[in-house]
Design a protein that fits this description.
By secondary structure, the chain is mainly beta. The chain contains one helix and eight strands; from the N terminus they run αββββββββ.
């Protein structure tokens, strides 16, 4: 009878300890988990850029992009076709958030056809990299230069 009683008491102590631990405050989770994206002041401004299909020859995928990054970390972009005859690029608009980390900038399009574009920085006035165009499912080289800096 003693073994059964001590086993029951041990189980009750364990359950009580687990319940108390679960009811306590969460460790490592802050109320600011949903805080706004940090300001992107070092990348804020207007950028003019282009993209072009890497290795395309019969058909092209070329566009001109005007990118406007605000101090609050949001961006808008307008895409226009470049003048090529067999151009697969379509006019579009992008909008979302811009995050600068180290030597990179990530554009997260909220609801557009380009969900995420990761760019590298060259100095303060050039953003570039290769991205995958969702419309053609092909790599395109992107390059942006800051206006007026």
């Amino acid at each position: 009878m003693r073994q059964r009683t001590s086993g029951t008491i041990s189980a009750m102590v364990l359950i009580t300890a687990l319940a108390a631990g679960c009811a306590g405050p969460a460790v490592g989770i802050s109320d600011s988990a949903s805080a706004a994206i940090p300001p992107a002041t070092d990348i804020a401004g207007t950028w003019h850029g282009t993209f072009g299909w890497v290795g395309g020859w019969h058909y092209t995928d070329e566009g001109k992009v005007t990118l406007d990054i605000k101090d609050n970390g949001t961006f808008t972009a307008t895409v226009e076709r470049n003048g090529a005859t067999n151009n697969l690029a379509k006019p579009a608009t992008w909008a979302g958030t811009a995050v600068a980390r180290g030597n990179g900038v990530t554009l997260r399009d909220t609801g557009g056809s380009w969900p995420t574009i990761a760019l590298r920085r060259s100095g303060n006035n050039v953003l570039y990299d290769v991205a995958n165009d969702p419309a053609t499912e092909s790599p395109v080289m992107m390059k942006f230069e800051r206006v007026g800096q």
